[in-house]
Amino acid sequence: MKKLLIMSVLLLAGLVMMGQVDKMKDLLDDEMDTDNLTLRFINALDGNPIPGATVEIESIGIYTTDIEGKIKFPRMKEDANLVVHFKKEGFIDTDISVEVIAETIFNNRISVSPVMALEYVRIILDWGRNPDDLDAHFTKDKQYHISYRNMKVSEDGVAQLDRDDTDSWGPETITIKEIKSDAHYEFWVHDFTNRLNENAGKLSKSGATVKVYGDGKLLENVTIPAGDKGNKWHVFTIDKGKIALTNYITSEN
């Protein structure tokens, strides 16, 4: 235990300059609780915790998130896929599957969308500790490209990057106020940290997930494919107003 505490202090000290301290402290606190597993629920628009939410884990129990947006439940000895139902006034009800492997939830931070107009579409990118910086890219063919370095708000004001994240975990969030039935859209995730290494395998190991909200509900929850090399993840397209998952990793633009 003493050796673990020393390692934790050194790790925190090394991360101060990277702006990761708060998130890393949460992770270390969660990992050092040997009796419980933890889930943390985050507001996708501002990155803040969501307190007072009701979280039901099927076959396990019903919990309320604390001021840090977290719940704790007994640590499981066997691997499992948990079905989790999130509910809180002002947020969209969200049902997801959470994987427990070797008594661990490798990315226990879950970003949830606040309520929005039914015609809006919101895309939320979450990932794990590494790489530090993944970037969301949303394009409307020949009209706009939303990302951290391109237009953060489209010229027509219809689409915007709500939140950029550069220090692991996310969320990185894009909201589109209108999807045209005659337009072609694409959503990519780029590994900015390893952008110079086209054959990097770090992206596929990130545990990244993309949630797509629309029509007042969660439409898609996509997990990055594991074991592939490349620094770009093509997640989905939208044509005629319909989402089509592509879900492949490449090094090509």
Characterise the protein shown here.
- The protein has two helices and 17 strands.
- The chain has 253 residues and is mostly beta strands.
- The strands form four sheets. It has a five-stranded antiparallel beta sheet, with no helix packed on it.
- The chain has three domains: 1-32, no CATH class; 38-114, Sandwich (Immunoglobulin-like), CATH 2.60.40.1120; 116-250, Sandwich (Lipoxygenase-1), CATH 2.60.60.30.
| Count of alpha/pi helices | 2
CATH superfamily of the largest domain: sav2460 like domains
What name does CATH use for the topology of the largest domain? Lipoxygenase-1
Uncertain residue ranges: 1-19
Query: In which order are the strands of the major sheet placed?
Result: 11-12-8-14-15
Second rung of CATH, namely the architecture of the largest domain? Sandwich
What is the CA-based Rg, rounded? 18 Å
Which CATH first-tier class of the largest domain would you pick?
Answer: Mainly Beta
Strand residue content: 35-45%
Largest sheet: 5 strands, antiparallel
Q: Give the helix proportion (percent range).
A: 10-25%
Total beta strand runs: 17
What number of structural domains do the residues give? 3
Shape: globular
Rounded mean pLDDT score: 89
Instruction: Classify the secondary structure makeup into a structural class.
Output: mainly beta
Distance between the termini: 47 Å
Question: What is the succession of H and E elements?
Answer: HHEEEEEEEEEEEEEEEEE
